[in-house]
Design goal:
This protein is mainly α. The protein contains six helices and no strands. Bound molecules: fe (ii) ion.
Length: about 180
């Protein structure tokens, strides 16, 4: 049986959680499912941002300037996605990811900790990661459609287009070269 101190602590935690429940006409089952999809996307986008930025820092070779600048643009685009994703979760009265540790436990896009990666391998890996992100975005949009959440769906439409644009640029920049990027 719980002590009265534990009961009090539970009660106060429930009150604090309730204070984060932004009012919405969407049912709790809907906001829970949409938030789960968005938090998965948020973890993936942070991971892909980090990898893109790391490749921006570490790319080398004859196409350095082109690749370095393209990857910086793409990283900025990914970072710009994170705040609207998290705020969408809060608008639905749900809780976002709160730490790097939680991101690492949630992300589906894999890290690359290699000290050296060939430029062509960098582009190919990011191309595939962005392609996978587009698939996750499309799947999340389906969750929004099922729950009549036009607000989140509208944002996701733009992110799908941006993600496909990144995939396109990575594909075109990486084709036809040898492993050094010539
Ligand atoms: Fe930079």
């Amino acid at each position: 049986m719980k002590s009265s101190t534990m009961k009090k602590a539970d009660h106060s935690l429930r009150l604090r959680e309730a204070s984060l429940t932004t009012p919405t006409d969407l049912p709790a089952t809907a906001t829970r499912d949409i938030a789960a999809a968005l938090n998965g996307l948020l973890a993936d986008v942070f991971s892909l941002f980090m990898k893109t930025k790391s490749f921006h820092w570490h790319v080398s070779g004859p196409h350095f300037r082109d690749y370095h600048l393209m990857l910086d643009e793409q990283a900025a685009e990914l970072l710009a996605m994170t705040d609207p994703i998290a705020e969408r979760v809060r608008k639905l009265g749900q809780i976002t990811v709160r730490s790097i540790g939680q991101i690492s436990r949630t992300q589906r896009i894999l890290d690359n900790d290699a000290v050296y990666v060939e430029p062509s391998d960098m582009l190919a890996e990011l191309r595939d990661d962005n392609k996978a992100l587009a698939a996750s975005l499309r799947e999340s949009r389906g969750v929004c459609d099922d729950n009549h959440d036009a607000g989140t769906a509208g944002l996701i439409d733009t992110w799908i287009d941006e993600t496909e644009r990144r995939t396109w640029f990575l594909f075109e920049s990486g084709r036809g070269g040898d492993s050094s990027g010539h």
